[in-house]
Structures are given as structure tokens and as C-alpha cells.
Predict the structure.
Amino acid sequence: MSNRRRSPFDNSPSVLTDDPPVLTAVVLGTTILCTALHLVIPGLLPAVRRNPDALAAGEWWRLVTPLFVQADSWWATLTVFVGIAIVGVAVERLYGRRDWLLLYFGGGVVGELAGYAWQPNGSGASVAGAGLLGGLCVWLLWRGKSLPLRVRIWGVVWLLVGVALVALHDIHGPPLCFGACLGGLLLFLEN
């Protein structure tokens, strides 16, 4: 039995769910907890962050674990968490849970791979959030046809920002572009 219904935004088929955004809450809660723990457990951040030598030594989990610790200033951390909460809830309701997981963790791994190439040491959930944002951008352009242009235009703006970030070797560009491509594929396959 499906938990899907039509979107209130337009008359096209949609995957807008009635379910509460559980994945967004669980993943964000886990990330907040791990971020808090790294402040009181000195060895936690070095054990999970991006580290090219550790990855080369077979610590493959370092493609995912950096997503669970935001090691920036409190202001940057708060901004990332609020952004993931807002975009995550929208994406989970528009795409559903399975696709949310694909966009979040697929974008996150793509962002970590870019990080290994362009910013070898670090961590943070913002790259996974960028994957969600890419999916949301495509949804706005493909399914949001009845939304006002002032809302839909943000899909174009953020996709252009993603391309610019790739050109600037910013690790948020590749996951944003990946999320857009994957989001488009998921919407196409749904039809």
C-alpha cells in the first residue's frame, strides 16, 4: 500500500507523502548528537573526518562518517542544520523516504569524494544537504509548474550556483549537481 498522494502544488503525479519526515529528523538528530559528542570526546573528530591516508589504508567508512560531524563555527553549524531541516523535510515529502536516502547519502558520498580531491581534511553534513537541494531544484522545475515563478526560479538559481561551485572546486557543487541529476532520474522513473 502506498503512502503517496497528489501534490497540492500542481495536477501532475507526485509522491508527496502524508508521513512525518522521520528520516530528516533521525539523520539530523544523529548528526547533532555526533557534533555535540566531538566537542567532549577529543578523539572522535580525527576518527571520523576525511583523511586521505586513512582512506588509503582501507578505512572506507570515511566516505560516510564525515557526514555526521559538523566541525565548523557554531554559526555555520546552525546554518547547515537549519538548511538540512528545511530542505530535508521538503524533499522527504516530495520524493519519499527511499529517494531521500539516495539523494542525501548519494550526494554526501559525491561531496566527500570531491572533498578528498579538493579539501582533503574535513567533515560536515552540508555536502549531503547539497544533494537534497539538487533534488529539490529539479522537482521545482519539473513538478512545480503551478508554483509562482518567483519560487520556481530558485531551482534555476541553485543549479547555476552548483555549476559555479564545481568550477571553483568547492565541494558543495558536485553533490548539488549529482542531486539534480539523480532527482531528475527518480522523477522520470516514477512516470
Notes: The helical segments are 22-40, 44-48, 52-56, 74-95, 97-118, 126-142, 149-167, 173-190. The longest helix spans residues 74-95. The domain at 19-190 is CATH 1.20.1540.10 (Rhomboid-like fold).
